[in-house]
Write a structure and sequence with these properties.
This protein is mostly helical. Helices cover about 80% and strands about 0% of the residues.
Length: about 260
């Protein structure tokens, strides 16, 4: 399911970037379907990742700082969430909407095979647009902090991912300079992916603390992990700043900055 979700995300991003080279109406319909599919498949993987990271963090906490049945509480909560999300994903894959999505994909592929819009000029324009939107997203983070900064960095991550996927499409045509830029953008995307993980985990830890308190449990460990995730987020923000400088100063085709 995770690989299917990744494939759907890549295809959706590519269709949005290069919409001008396709049947726009068909591409828009397919993009909407892929967005739905990605949302339906996201749950199981999100639970798995959050559980893995929180349990790894918990393993680093000295036993003298763990009070109450913390691990049992997490196991119960994540098992319930995982089952719920798996049921949702399986229901989506058995639905008529998924079948329609597959048929729409096949139809669009046939359209693309007959297309003659394959010139370098046609590929450059959407690639430049994706790079420009990434630059604008980074500029929009200036002066922000707290929740606003986290949201802005999440947007940068999404724009970096789209730019990277677009580069994957056109790289065979434009070669090494674009590959170098794409590598730097991917580093930014990965760092901001880790940063977003800290955002998700802090939200989960806060929920565990509130619910645990309501059940008269000792929630000290959740607060401790929250603080560590917050420190990790700050470190990742610094790493992002360094990696973004590499994007700005690194090699790229001259036309990409136009």
């Amino acid at each position: 399911m995770h690989q299917m979700r990744v494939a759907a995300r890549k295809l959706r991003s590519t269709l949005k970037t290069f919409a001008a080279l396709t049947d726009r109406s068909a591409a828009a319909e397919l993009t909407a379907g892929l967005k739905w599919l990605g949302a339906e498949l996201s749950g199981p993987r999100d639970v798995e990742v959050t559980r893995g990271r929180i349990e790894a963090r918990l393993a680093e906490v000295p036993t003298e700082l763990l009070f109450g049945p913390v691990r049992q509480y997490l196991t119960r909560d994540f098992a319930r969430a995982s089952r719920t999300e798996l049921d949702r994903a399986e229901e989506a894959l058995a639905s008529d909407r998924y079948g329609l999505l597959l048929r729409s994909m096949a139809t669009l592929l046939e359209t693309l095979r007959s297309s003659t819009k394959d010139s370098k000029k046609a590929l450059r324009k959407p690639m430049r647009k994706a790079a420009r939107k990434l630059d604008q997203a980074v500029a929009a983070t200036d002066g922000l902090d707290g929740a606003e900064l986290a949201e802005a960095l999440h947007n940068v991550r999404k724009k970096a991912k789209r730019a990277r996927y677009a580069a994957d499409v056109v790289q065979p045509v434009f070669g090494k300079k674009l590959r170098a830029w794409r590598t730097n953008v991917k580093a930014v995307q990965r760092t901001l992916g880790k940063h977003q993980d800290t955002v998700v985990e802090r939200a989960a830890l806060r929920r565990f603390a509130i619910e645990g308190y309501g059940e008269h449990q000792n929630t000290f460990a959740f607060g401790l992990l929250y603080g560590r995730e917050e420190a990790s987020a700050i470190a990742l923000q610094g790493q992002f700043a360094e990696e973004w400088r590499a994007v700005e100063d690194g090699r790229r085709p001259g036309w990409l900055a136009a």
